[in-house]
């Protein structure tokens, strides 16, 4: 794999949580990976740690409908240098996680499926050109 890998898109559907995917730590070996969808009901912190190694990532979808996220996920993911589009299928996110979304360096599109307080929505719109709250 490594530099020889040409895989650019990956969709992972697991029934329960990301810890049940034993090969998840191998994702950073796919150096050309630009789009990832991970759609479990619960997303562990380790998932974000693994994804931080995917530096070419431009589009990321996390969580199926009403998914639950481990604490501090957004701060961990904010180091992705090329991430342009983020879709979060969270049932809810703490205000601190929502505010952390303003620190993503290249984010151009954000899709949220949770309630967002008005003051945080305004903050997001100041930092991200396209914010859709579904």
In short:
The protein is an alpha/beta fold.
Q: Main traits of this protein?
A:
Leucine-rich repeat, LRR (right-handed beta-alpha superhelix); 7-stranded parallel beta sheet; alpha/beta; globular; 134 residues; LRR_dom_sf; single chain; 4 helices
Q: What is the C-alpha radius of gyration, as a whole number of Å?
A: 14 Å
CATH fold-level assignment: Leucine-rich repeat, LRR (right-handed beta-alpha superhelix)
The ordered string of helix (H) and strand (E) elements is EEEHEHEHEHE
Count of discrete domains: 1
| CATH architectural group | Alpha-Beta Horseshoe
Alpha-beta content class: alpha/beta
Average pLDDT confidence is 89
Note the gap between the termini: 37 Å
Give a short account of the largest sheet. Answer: 7 strands, parallel
The portion of residues forming beta strands comes to: 25-35%
Please report the first level of CATH classification, the CATH class.
Alpha Beta
Individual helix count = 4
């Amino acid at each position: 794999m490594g530099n020889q890998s040409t895989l650019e898109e990956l969709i992972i559907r697991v029934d329960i949580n990301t810890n049940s995917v034993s090969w998840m730590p191998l994702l950073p070996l796919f150096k050309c990976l630009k789009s990832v969808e991970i759609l479990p009901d619960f997303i562990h912190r380790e998932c974000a740690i693994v994804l931080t190694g995917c530096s070419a990532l431009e589009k990321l979808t996390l969580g199926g409908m009403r998914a639950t996220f481990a604490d501090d996920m957004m701060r961990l993911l904010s180091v992705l240098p090329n991430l342009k589009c983020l879709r979060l299928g969270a049932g809810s996110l703490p205000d601190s996680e929502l505010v952390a979304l303003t620190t993503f360096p290249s984010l151009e599109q954000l899709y949220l499926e949770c309630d967002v307080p008005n003051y945080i929505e305004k903050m997001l719109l100041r930092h991200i050109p396209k914010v859709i709250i579904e």
